[in-house]
Amino acid sequence: MSQVSTTTSHVPSRWERFKESDFFYHFKRDKVAMASFTVFMVFLLMALASPLIAPHNPYDLSTIDIMDAELPPSWMEDGDENFLLGTDEQGRDIFSTMLYGSRLSLTIGFLAVGLQLFLGTIIGLSAGYFGGRIDSFLMRFADVQLSFSTMMVAIIVSAIFKASFGSDFYSQYAVVMLVVIIGVAEWPQYARTIRASVLAEKKKEYVEAARVMGFKAPRIMFRHILPNCLSPILVISTVQVANAIMSEAALSFLGLGLPVDQPSLGALISIGFNYIFSGAWWITAFPGVLLVTLVLVINLLGDWLRDVFNPKIYKG
Q1: What is the pLDDT of residues 54-108, one digit of tens each?
Q2: What phi, psi does 93 have (nearest 5°)?
Q3: For 173-187, what is the mean pLDDT?
Q4: Residues in Cβ contact with 296 at an 8 Å cutoff, skipping those fewer than 6 apart
Q5: Cα–Cα distance, 243 to 239 (Å, whole number)
Q6: How far apart are CA 284 and CA 268, in angstroms?
Q7: What's the DSSP call for residue 214?
Q8: d(CA 143, CA 93)
Q9: Residue 256 in contact with residue 162, Cβ under 8 Å?
Q10: What span, in angstroms and rounded, lies between the C-alpha atoms of 106 and 109?
């Protein structure tokens, strides 16, 4: 009678594999990336939890008193301890409005990038995989759009939407409109990058093997080629979130963004700009600092991701 000993091997979890990955190793060694990620997560969590942590609700008109308009920050003379960063021209708490505004700005940024990614992926994959006239037509169309500045395209589309549907309709669906406007204006960045990756990938053996096995083009494109193009997509997405937030802020500053009763960071800066010379500098200054910091940390993360996914230039 023989005794059979069985040994069970430990299968590492996804988190354990991630901790052992080169990506996490380089992240721990890069102080700028860690600091940027920490600041971004703090902003993101505060924005998501704004209804819980904001001392005031800027959307509740019953709690807003016009007599509290343009109060300075609490540490300044004539400041009120109930309003840490002061109030705007309507008497809304600046700190609370910034929390709610950052949530709107981040929401628009992420959704707009999602739309850009969807359009750019479909067009880039189709152009790179099929080639020929399809590639020429789609890329010439992208070149035409890239010949105009992103802000010019966004302003034109925004003005058309506002004139076509009316100001009331535009104000009611301002978030959706801005997502569509910014998404339509920026998709060529994704399309050109994905097309370049597809042109390199479709010549490899695994794509030829998939064709020989009789797989249809959509399955080869989305199941086999696209996963190998994720690195540049991730880098572009990080940078494009910052660009989308800045585009929303610029459109709101020009009066083509969110209405006054839905304050984003750009709308707050636009509103406060009219009161700088009257002494109420805090209405613009604090949202401006938050916007610059948010865009800066996102861009720093994007630069780090670009370097990590390009070993030729990464020195970490």
Answers
A1: 888 887 777 777 777 778 888 887 777 888 888 887 888 888 888 988 888 888 8
A2: -70, 125
A3: 84
A4: 36
A5: 6
A6: 6
A7: T
A8: 45
A9: yes
A10: 5
Tokens of 252: 């709101």
The residue among 65, 89, 68 whose CA lies nearest residue 274 is 89
Helices 265-273 and 94-130: crossing angle in degrees, nearest 10, is: 130
User: How wide is the angle at C-alpha 14 spanned by C-alphas 10 and 17, nearest 5°?
Assistant: 75
* Residue 94: CB atoms within 10 Å: 28
112 contacts 174 by C-beta, under 8 angstroms: no
Nearest to 193 by CA among 227, 231, 223, 219: 231
Both structure tokens of 70: 């343009």
**Exposure letters 18-35 (e unless 16+ CB within 10 A, then b):** eeeeeeeeebeebeebee
SS3 197: helix
How far from 297 is each of 116, 243, 292, CA to CA, in Å? 21, 12, 9
* Most distant CA pair in the chain, distance: 96
Q: Which helix (H) or strand (E) holds 34?
A: helix 31-48
Under 8 Å between Cβ of 295 and 109: no
pLDDT digits (tens, 9 = 90+) for 193-246: 899 888 888 888 888 888 888 888 888 888 888 888 888 888 888 888 888 888
- As a whole number of angstroms, the distance between CA 44 and CA 214 comes to 45
Confidence of residue 14 (pLDDT cuts 50, 70, 90): confident
Residues in the chain: 316
